[in-house]
Amino acid sequence: MRPPPTRITALNGPWPLHDAAASRQAEQQALLAAAPHALMEAAGLAVARLGLALAPHARRVAVWAGPGNNGGDGWVAARHLHERGLQVQVLHMAASAHGPADAEQARQQALRAGVPAQAWTAGPAPAADLHIDALLGLGVRQAPSAAAAAAIQALNQAAGRGAVVLAVDLPSGLHPDTGALLGAEAVRASATLALLTLKPGCHTAQGRDHAGDLWFDNLGVAAGPPTALLLGPPVGQPRLHSSHKGSHGDVVVVGGAPGMVGAAWLAARAALEAGAGRVYVSALDPEAALLDPMQPALMARQQWWTLPPEVLATATVVVGCGGGSAVAATLPALLRHVPRLVLDADALNALAADASLLARLRERAAHGHATLLTPHPLEAARLLGQSTAEMQADRLAAAWALATRCQATVLLKGSGSVLATPGTLPCINPTGNAALATAGTGDVLAGWVAGLWAQRPSADPEAVAQQAVWQHGRAADLHARHAAPGAPLTAGALISALAARPPEG
Length: 505
Prior knowledge:
With about 500 residues, this protein is of the alpha/beta class. The protein has helices spanning about 20-35, 40-55, 70-85, 100-110, 145-160, 205-210, 260-275, 310, 330-335, 345-355, 355-365, 375-385, 390, 395-405, 440-455, 460-480, 490-500, and strands at about 5, 15, 60-65, 85-90, 115-120, 130-135, 165-170, 190-195, 215, 230, 250-255, 280-285, 300, 315-320, 340-345, 370-375, 410, 420, 425-430.
């Protein structure tokens, strides 16, 4: 007997991700190597077993079968569940003559086994304890038909009434590569069983809201090279007993225009808690206080960016947090001389508005300087000259395009934050949740990554950003375990949570 599927969590990665084209290639190679119908039989059996595990007390099962191979997997699952004595009903979407040969064989076997079936028309979903979504498969690239859309709506209504919904491979109505909705609605599954490969779309954009708990069964097939990676826990970096504060680097935060100085202090606190040896704040508000009473270990420096180049070259610098329009004047010197630069918030807006600054940014790599951009979707869209909706429609492609344009590492924040660096595979972060949707949490991330980077000055920015974004999201996930449902996480509480991070982070 084959091993059971693996549940994909933030703690057991990294995992390879394969887009639709790479997944199709893996499927074709597997079909050539396997006996006829064996792959679909294995997939359907895996679906049936996971369905029983997710809903062990279920007596009534509704299987929603589309016309393709995804539907064929559903027919196989229906047959196995029927043979185990459950009350199974298949709701199919198209006549058998329009389906692939394997799917038609699966349908015929299920009908010969006595599985009840009827064509789906419209109306509410039948009463069932377990619904299996096998409507739309990997190859769908357009909005669902009217009938499929009605079925998706009925499935979601059943989920709202407490039924378990298991999606086969990916939730119907979700783009496998981007996580965008193909139409007005996609299935909101309790769980998804990915088959053969893990698809990027289940991990970013709308994917995490629709896939539910993600399980994976490769059906014994080794897929080809991945097209992206899902991050796993970072490896800890122990400190030497002989180290001192000078061993762990300096961080300088440049930001904090009038009315927004708090953003700079938040980033600085995060950098200090991340382990930087010394942290300085150079506020753009000339009347800003020179001390943070909550963290007196932080030091203030006025107009640090005007110091000689040899001084600028000694630090890891975060620029932009609460920077306002005044931050643009600091960028020429920082872009030219700082070896490790984190560009956030208003620094990114300044780059988007000034082609000469963008040109200087692109020159940094040629001079051996490393840069990390940490945009949220609107900031990324401005840098790309797109609308936010256009950018969010394909987050992996947008992050890659921005990294290529800026010749820098990009950490595109959001649900399933995306990391991209020219010449490497993009990565998706599996941690984090909506509790992070509060003011200042982005400033904390910028400071945290700078604090980590200062301790490892020779590390490439992507490696440091991978660690930082995973830990940042993990702190929010641990918060969600103990807080009331939907409770936000303030930036100050996030810093405390990060400072108390568990061993796996």
